[in-house]
Design goal:
Strand order of the largest sheet: 2-1-9-8-5
Structural class: alpha+beta
Number of helices: 2
Strand content: 35-45%
Shape: elongated
């Protein structure tokens, strides 16, 4: 299952593997992976179902991986993210414009500097995912 507060992208759908941007690095989970809870950082999630690959950008979130509880033998990966967007929907030109605005904005206060730094980091990940 992969969802955000706005939508459910996958709901209990079997797939072959999921590659996620973990806080400590990118990793892939498949059926029978060891149990894991991981914080996710901004980046691309790749869902592999046979030869079909689908990429999604997330701003951040969590992955919960559990063993099967229903006797099916299929493990479950639940991904809860603040935002989940197909990478094909990312607008590189708009992201570049937003980055320019963030970098040009005043940085007089600690809040201004933090907003600029965090915003630029997120937009840079959007640009990387849009390539």
């Amino acid at each position: 299952t992969m969802c955000s507060p706005a939508e459910a992208v996958y709901v209990k759908r079997p797939v072959d593997s999921v590659t996620v941007p973990g806080a400590e690095g990118t990793f892939t989970v498949t059926n029978n992976h060891s149990l894991i809870v991981s914080q996710l950082k901004a980046g691309v999630i790749t869902v592999r179902d046979g030869t079909d690959l689908k990429d999604f950008f997330i701003s951040d979130g969590f992955l919960f991986f559990n063993h099967a509880t229903d006797g099916s033998g299929c493990c479950t990966a639940d991904i809860s993210a603040v935002e989940v967007v197909p990478t094909s929907a990312l607008d590189k030109d708009r992201a570049t414009q937003v980055l320019s605005e963030l970098l040009a904005a005043p940085k007089d206060t600690e809040w201004d500097r933090s907003k600029s730094q965090l915003g630029a980091a997120l937009v840079n990940q959007v640009l990387k995912a849009a390539e």
